[in-house]
Amino acid sequence: MKTKILTYLRNTDEYLSGEQLSRQFQVSRTAVWKYMKQLREEGYEIESVPRKGYRLLKTADKVTASEILSQNKAQWVGQEIEYFESTDSTNNRIRSFAENGRKEGLLAVAEEQTGGKGRWGRNWVSPKGTGIWISLLLRPQIEPQKASMVTILAALALVKAIKRTIDLDVQIKWPNDVIINGKKVCGILTEMSAELEAIHYIIVGIGINANTEQFDEEIMDRATSIYLESGKKIKRAKLIVEFCQEFEQLYEIFIERGDLENVKEEYESCLINIGKTVKIIKNKQELIRKAIGINELGELIVEDDKGTRETVFSGEVSVRGLYGYV
């Protein structure tokens, strides 16, 4: 009910009387007053004028279910949300929900993670009130070997979402690191439960340094935030909503086609590696190659100094710049 009232307030500049809201949602005026009190306690600035009613003046930078659902226009991605003030990992929460039969599109959102993780088992620092820590549940009817393409889609959707939220030049370090000015602003961890020929579910975990003001010394040379690059604090729920809408469109076309041919050109236009010499690390061995682009499967096409081309799969290698992170 709180979500419905917040949505109603968002969609008008007029005053809404307690009687109007009471009739609209078939609750008592006392209940309306209690919901308004809850919203104010969460940081929403709501004006109340006798004989006129309530009006929303300012929203809060919250990532609660109510704040996200009141804005989300996606059809199914993020239309069900489980919110946690604090949790070890949103990927862990989604895995539990998936095992209990929850539907595709469920989004786990946390204000803080105490055990966030990235690729290769690395820790992901997830402090309270500054970042976006979310995990999405998917149940695609595709072959397990195509699951890595979902990560490519998520990275592209995030780039598009950030650009829609704030004017920044955003790029991708293949396959799934989102980059601003040569530093990582977002990471994606995709996990899967599958049998040989069928996927039970895929979890897309996303961590975004949104309004982070500083980083530990050991990572500050390669990590950044949207705030540090733009000088502006963003409303985190708005970025989550933009991601849900962008990802839904890309994912539905992918499921229909079964490959990435339709997004290949757009993805390559965001690649920070493209046309550059990169270091490919596989089984502790290093290969020096030139990054050419991706194929319809999302594999990176690389070329050696003799012009011979090959593809590398994201699950088996780490790609870095020749002299550093990018």
* Average residue pLDDT: 92
Question: Helical percent range?
Answer: 25-40%
* Total helical elements: 9
Please list the strands of the largest sheet in the order they lie side by side.
3-4-5-9-8-7-6
Largest sheet: 7 strands, mixed
Cα-atom radius of gyration: 22 Å
SSE string: HHHEEHEHEEHEEEEHHHEEEEE
What is the CA–CA distance across the termini?
A: 47 Å
Which structural class do the helices and strands define? alpha+beta
> Overall 3D geometry?
elongated
Can you give a write-up of this model?
- With 326 residues, the protein is of the alpha+beta class.
- The chain has helices spanning 2-10, 18-25, 29-41, 65-69, 90-99, 148-165, 226-230, 236-257, 264-270; strands at residues 45-49, 53-58, 80-84, 106-110, 132-138, 170-173, 177-180, 183-194, 199-208, 277-282, 285-294, 300-303, 309-312, 318-321.
- Strands 3-4-5-9-8-7-6 form a seven-stranded mixed beta sheet, with helices on both faces.
- The chain starts with a helix and ends in a 5-residue tail after the last strand.
- The model has no long low-confidence stretch (mean pLDDT 92).
